[in-house]
């Protein structure tokens, strides 16, 4: 079976690349399972100081794979694994991010994107809601901005993503921005990184403990609904869904 996650290592930094360009790195059940396994390997490996999550192709992640989606609880487990990993996770984005891909970004500790990247919460346009991705998003981003972008599904640019707290930084050359970040992580003690990350993720993990079960159930219910079936069919057929005025 072809791997969906590329893996390289340089001076203690493990780079995991979403590598399903045929589906624009959509979150399929196999991709979610393979990424979760790779993160588990990184957690157990004492030679891994930090993880970079990046992508091949022009899209970081197109959201859920509508033909082969992961179970909602499997995706929640992946998001939680990113948050709980005892090593910093740095997102490197040089392309577009949609829907569930924004949940991946929110679950990372440091996020940087090129100025050419674009973002959108497209769930409402297919009849569902950004349910489980709200677990890491709501504690970390501007709630008024989320109200706009959740409800409209409109696209926004990298500077706006940085303003609302989705990104740590944006620049034309994202690697130049991340070079001092990775150097800093390499200089930090593993224990110091793990315990500092634990301090920083308290509120996010509280959201998982409080809301994960309810949001997982909501996601499953919405994806099984008649409106979602119409929305997903319209998306796959490249037409407007029936409710568009």
From TrEMBL:
Pfam families per the UniProt record, alphabetical: ECH_1
CDD domains assigned to the protein according to its UniProt record, in alphabetical order: crotonase-like
Highest taxon in the source lineage: Bacteria
InterPro entries in UniProt: ClpP/crotonase-like_dom_sf, Enoyl-CoA_hydra/iso, Enoyl-CoA_hydra_C, Enoyl-CoA_Hydratase/Isomerase
Family designation: Belongs to the enoyl-CoA hydratase/isomerase family.
The protein's name in its UniProt record: Enoyl-CoA hydratase family protein
Native source organism of the sequence: Streptomyces phaeoluteigriseus
Organism phylogeny: Bacteria, Bacillati, Actinomycetota, Actinomycetes, Kitasatosporales
